[in-house]
């Protein structure tokens, strides 16, 4: 890949990282961009995205911890479920056909976008508490689905926690804490079971980390509801595009 294309990829990754840092949704746009705009094989797109999410997660966890927005007791149980499941998800991705992965990504896009349009829960009362078993199960679902589709932990975890009536900022903070170990295990699995393009992954990583830093500041300084709705509609639009593409490919082989 040329230097100009890597710069373009890094620039788009800054945009995606900003969405992840501010609203917890946006990483799902990365694989479709790599596959459909830059023409990269979807398996390589997924592994490069997961490599980049390592650094996005590290940056997000540090910044959200600095703001005091991570509930570490919950995060520990989520991570315990997400890490082994992410390794298994990487194996599933390496063994799955491209069409299956595209269908899974389309479903996740539509799920994430529709859930992001739900009204946010903003309360001053004590936040909900889940037990270790429930948190491990949620972490496992997040880790497996994220590694299999290259969409990043926040895409799955944030809608799940918001659906369970956690405040958005709490959900995003937990997703940032979970993303680093999840993406690390998934990437180890990708090196074992598949292939990781370091140059593409590095461009993604730099862009995502810079974007997350900006997005985290936005999330803690202004209301992110408007941005979240914009991201939700973009996510739904991309999901519809991928689903339509698969249907057309099926009808017109």
The amount of beta strand, in percent, is: under 5%
Give unreliable regions as ranges. Answer: none
Number of helices: 10
Distance between the termini: 29 Å
Work out the helicity level: over 70%
Shape: globular
What is the average of the pLDDT values? 86
- In total, the number of domains comes to 1
Instruction: Find the count of extended strands (DSSP E, 2+ residues).
Output: 0
Order of helices and strands: HHHHHHHHHH
Summarize the structure in words:
This protein is mainly α and 253 residues long. The protein has one domain (3-122, 130-251). It is 80% helix and 0% strand. It has ten helices and no strands. The protein has helices at residues 3-23, 30-37, 42-66, 72-95, 98-116, 132-149, 153-163, 168-193, 198-221, 225-251. Helix 1 packs antiparallel against helix 8, helix 4 packs parallel to helix 8 and helix 7 (153-163) packs antiparallel against helix 8. The longest helix is centred in the C-terminal third of the chain and has 27 residues, at 225-251. The radius of gyration is 17 Å and the shape is globular.
Chain-wise SSE layout:
Elements: H1 3-23, H2 30-37, H3 42-66, H4 72-95, H5 98-116, H6 132-149, H7 153-163, H8 168-193, H9 198-221, H10 225-251
Helix pairs in contact: 1-8, 1-9, 2-3, 3-8, 3-9, 4-6, 4-8, 5-7, 5-10, 6-7, 6-8, 7-8
Which terms summarize this structure?
10 helices; 80% helix; mainly alpha; 253 residues; globular
In short:
This protein has helices spanning 3-23, 30-37, 42-66, 72-95, 98-116, 132-149, 153-163, 168-193, 198-221, 225-251.
């Amino acid at each position: 890949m040329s230097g100009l294309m890597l710069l373009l990829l890094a620039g788009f990754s800054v945009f995606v990282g900003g969405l992840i840092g501010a609203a917890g949704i946006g990483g799902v746009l990365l694989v479709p961009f790599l596959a459909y705009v830059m023409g990269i094989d979807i398996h390589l797109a997924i592994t490069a995205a997961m490599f980049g999410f390592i650094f996005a997660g590290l940056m997000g966890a540090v910044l959200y911890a600095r703001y005091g927005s991570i509930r570490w007791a919950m995060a520990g149980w989520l991570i315990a479920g997400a890490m082994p499941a992410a390794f298994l998800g990487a194996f599933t991705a390496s063994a799955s056909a491209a069409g299956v992965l595209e269908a899974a990504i389309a479903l996740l896009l539509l799920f994430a976008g529709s859930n992001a349009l739900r009204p946010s829960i903003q309360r001053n009362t004590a936040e909900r508490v889940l037990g270790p078993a429930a948190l491990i199960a949620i972490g496992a679902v997040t880790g497996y689905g994220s590694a299999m589709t290259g969409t990043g932990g926040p895409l799955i975890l944030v809608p799940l926690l918001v659906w369970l009536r956690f405040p958005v900022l709490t959900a995003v903070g937990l997703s940032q804490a979970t993303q680093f170990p999840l993406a690390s295990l998934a990437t180890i699995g990708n090196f074992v079971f598949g292939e990781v393009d370091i140059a593409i992954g590095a461009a993604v990583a730099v862009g995502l980390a810079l974007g997350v830093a900006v997005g985290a500041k936005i999330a803690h300084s202004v209301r992110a509801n408007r941005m979240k709705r914009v991201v939700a509609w973009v996510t739904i639009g991309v999901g519809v595009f991928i689903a339509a593409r698969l249907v057309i490919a099926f009808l017109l082989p």
